[in-house]
Amino acid sequence: MSQFSPEFIRTLCAALDDAAIQIQSDSSTKAFMAEQILKAAADGVYRREDLTGIAVKAARMKADRL
Fold first, then answer.
1. Distances (CA, A) of 52 to 1, 11, 41
2. Which residue from 3, 26, 38, 61 puts its CA 20 to 30 A from 13's CA?
């Protein structure tokens, strides 16, 4: 399991906050987006904007399938 620096954890949280604002999400959607952000970070995505975009896209795709 990789460990993230405190500074990068703040970036992850900020990306999640940005995504939650764009989607106007409920708690389950926000949890889903957090999972997507963590997966992307583990795969080497580090930019806040990229992490936000990944979370938003995943949430929209999930919503379209419902």
1. 22, 10, 11
2. 61
SS3 assignment, position 1: coil
CA distance from start to end of the chain: 32
CB atoms closer than 10 angstroms to residue 14? 13
Mean pLDDT, residues 9-33 taken together: 95
Q: Say if residues 15 and 52 touch (Cβ distance below 8 Å).
A: yes
Burial of 37 (0-12, 13-18, 19+ CB in 10 A): buried
Question: pTM for this structure?
Answer: 0.91
